[in-house]
């Protein structure tokens, strides 16, 4: 759950049972904090039932109207000021995860920023992660980190060959891969037969702001993940899904090769 513009729309998913919230400083953390505060105050959820994560966004990737730090400071102080602002905006004293929202233009700065993040771990941050990172950028941070990244949030799209190599690295190193824009950016996947069949089998609902529909979505997710027979019944679709991605990735690689060597 992320980028909801108004406190009621933060509180509604929490009422429905959504327990993970991602609030980058590039979006609207103050309103997010108000939504969380209302949900906690009303007893809808307890803090330890939520997984809250936020991000630091380098200047090059920032909305220039929402920069939460003084540009005249050195990078370390920019990061510390941004983190302090995040805690003030969200109204919490710790985060379950903190993400480097985008790589710096100078890749050495990714490691330098990571070292600053590490000083907050255990006291203020439980976990660290990265977003919008290539495999090479991820590997460099990972190899230099004392506290290893446990989350990678990347856009899932054709031009990165569906992040095949990044996902492989994550699997090998116990990193949770959180994809976003998976269907929005991939009409060839959204329009595939396998997605249509799974949606039909599970009665998938479109995105919504209505509490009752959120509850139905969560009930179905819980049912599927906790139902061995249902998971077994989906094995053909899972196999077809893997093949679809491999086929699509292969076509992308061929197209890229043709561009390089016409």
Detailed description of the structure:
- Residues 18-182 form the NADP-dependent oxidoreductase domain.
- This is Aldo/keto reductase.
- InterPro entries: AKR, Aldo/ket_reductase_CS, NAD(P)_OxRdtase_dom_sf, NADP_OxRdtase_dom.
- It is a single chain.
- With 262 residues, this protein is of the alpha/beta class.
- The protein has two domains: 1-185, NADP-dependent oxidoreductase domain (TIM Barrel, Alpha-Beta Barrel), CATH 3.20.20.100; 187-262, no CATH class.
- It has eleven helices and six strands.
- It has a six-stranded parallel beta sheet, covered by helices on one side.
- α2 links the parallel β1 and β2.
- It is globular and about 55 Å long.
Number of helices: 11
How would you describe the shape?
Answer: globular
**What's the architecture of the largest domain in CATH terms?**
Alpha-Beta Barrel
Largest sheet: 6 strands, parallel
CATH class of the largest domain: Alpha Beta
Task: Kindly state the number of beta strands.
Answer: 6
Helix coverage percent = 40-55%
CATH topology type of the largest domain: TIM Barrel
Domain count: 2
Mean pLDDT over the full residue set? 82
Please name the fourth-level CATH homologous superfamily of the largest domain: NADP-dependent oxidoreductase domain
* Low-pLDDT windows of residues: 1-21, 256-262
* Class of secondary structure makeup: alpha/beta
Report how far apart the termini are: 43 Å
- Rg from alpha-carbon coordinates: 20 Å
The side-by-side strand order for the widest beta sheet comes to 1-2-3-4-5-6
Taken as a percent bin, the fraction of beta residues is 5-15%
Written as H for each helix and E for each strand, in order along the chain, the element string is: HEHEHEHEHEHEHHHHH
